[in-house]
Design brief:
heterodimer, A: 89 residues, 83% helix, B: 144 residues, two-stranded antiparallel sheet, 5 helices, 68% helix, membrane (chain B), sodium:proton antiporter activity (chain B), transmembrane helix (chain B), transmembrane (chain B), PhaG_MnhG_YufB (chain B)
Chain lengths: 89, 144
């Protein structure tokens, strides 16, 4: 059982590294926003893994708040792009 | 006996969650343009989080926690398409280049990016000649 947790953490960490590579090389700003949103999704999944791993149910609340802030950040970036912020970086 | 079965189920759910999220990450790194990347990240990522929350429900086996995990799943399933729609719309308006092998772009011939008018292809002559609103819905430059 212990190894299952560690393997899951490893898979999620590899996913974080790959998404971070897209965040760095993404040619346009919307690409980076999509990468940020997926990064927050991975963080929600990692919080759930940590809650199971340490047997603390409080961390599910953290997952709820992380999902909420990720959604708000994505909507905010989309509005910022549509209202004419800097078009390229 | 029951505990063993539940542990095996939790293991299956956690590992498949990790694999789905890894697939989403590979997709967001390898796919060619913004829309295909959103296609990878939204669906596989949401399914990964949902599987992880199912594993948490099975592990804790508590009514309050099951309700919270269901709330997370519901929230992810509602907000992920909305956020992807908003970003995709903003990306199209900004003019993010799409893949060269894209088969169909129905907005390209009917949509005017400057005035934000969308033609249906069935307008009469005078409707086409009518000037659009002078203030576009989305400002291109600032107002100074």
């Amino acid at each position: 059982m212990h190894y299952i947790y560690l393997i899951t953490f490893g898979l999620l960490s590899i996913a974080l590294v790959l998404i971070f590579a897209r965040l760095l090389i993404g040619p346009t700003l919307p690409d980076r926003v999509v990468a940020l949103e997926l990064l927050a999704t991975v963080i929600v999944a990692m919080t759930g893994t940590y809650a199971i791993f340490h047997d603390r149910s409080n961390f599910i609340d953290v997952a709820i708040v992380a999902a909420l802030t990720a959604f708000l950040a994505a909507i905010g970036f989309a509005r910022f792009l549509e209202r004419g912020g800097p078009r390229d970086d | 006996m029951t505990e063993t079965v539940i542990n095996v189920l939790i293991s299956i759910f956690m590992l498949s969650s990790g694999i789905f999220i890894l697939v989403a990450a590979v997709g967001i790194l390898r796919l060619p343009d913004l829309l295909t990347r959103m296609h990878a990240s939204t669906k596989a990522g949401a399914l990964g989080v949902a599987l992880m929350m199912v594993a948490a429900m099975l592990h804790f086996n508590d009514l309050v926690l099951i309700a919270k995990a269901m709330a997370v799943i519901l929230f992810i399933f509602i907000t992920a398409p909305v956020a992807a729609h908003a970003i995709g719309r903003a990306g199209y308006f900004v003019g993010v280049p799409i893949w060269v092998k894209t088969v169909k772009d129905e907005l390209f011939s009917n949509y005017d990016a400057d005035t934000h008018r969308l033609r249906s292809g069935m307008e009469t002559k005078e409707e086409l000649a009518k000037p659009s609103k002078d203030k576009p819905r989305i400002r291109i430059s600032s107002k100074k």
